[in-house]
Amino acid sequence: MAIEVRLDLELARRKMTLAELADRVGITPVNLSILKNGRAKAVRFSTLDAICRELGCQPGDLLVHVPDPDSDYR
């Protein structure tokens, strides 16, 4: 996958659990876990906004593009 989710790093920096963030954001821990583990196919901007608001971060702190070494895309 070309997009890496770094939610776990932001949670660790703030010493916050996934369950605590899920409660603050109003999303189920299961759905937040799917995002955290990189299995989500999409994320709503409203959800991303809520996560960034609670963690005090920017979307770029959570989502990083990692080029596929086998891809011709530059």
Could you explain how this protein is built, in words?
The protein is built from 5 helices and 2 strands; from the N terminus they run βαααααβ. The chain has a two-stranded antiparallel ribbon with strand order 1-2. Helix content is 51%, strand content 8%. The longest helix is centred in the last third of the chain and has 11 residues.
Shape: elongated
Q: Helicity range of the residues? A: 40-55%
The CATH homologous superfamily corresponds to lambda repressor-like DNA-binding domains
Question: What is the CATH topology assignment?
Answer: 434 Repressor (Amino-terminal Domain)
Structural class determined from secondary elements = mainly alpha
Q: What composes the largest sheet?
A: 2 strands, antiparallel
pLDDT averaged over residues: 93
Which architecture does the CATH hierarchy give at level 2?
Answer: Orthogonal Bundle
Please tell me how large the radius of gyration is. 13 Å
Number of domains: 1
Spatial separation of the terminal alpha carbons: 15 Å
What is the CATH level 1 assignment? Answer: Mainly Alpha
Number of helices: 5
The SSE order reads EHHHHHE
Strand order of the largest sheet: 1-2
How many beta-strand segments? 2
Q: Indicate the low-confidence ranges by residue numbers.
A: none
Instruction: Report the sheet-strand fraction.
Output: 5-15%
